[in-house]
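User:
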Amino acid sequence: MNLYICFMSKSNDIQKLYYSISEVAEMFDVSNSLIRFWEGEFAILKPRKNSRGDRRFTQKDIQNLELIYHLVKEKGFTLEGAKREIKLNKEKLAQKQETIRRLKKLRSFLQELKKELSML
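Assistant: Predicted structure:
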């Protein structure tokens, strides 16, 4: 499952302030335990916890998870390699991820437009 397609919802402009660990795990098609594991391994992941101890992920947390997912799952980095890459090139990686996200959103829009035009 492609992360970027999975992450984008039908209402691309509406975003929640906080996401549960289950929602985040579903976005990335991984288990809750992997998200918790990555939280322990990567200092850039700092989800808030409510009074019950449930994790609440912000958009920033999700963007950081995108970086981790991309490096570990898509590029095949080891955890140590991913940590090093994030430490050395976080801004460059974040810009690249944002560009990819925008291009995927544009492609989705164009595909929808093409579909609507073909129905005329």
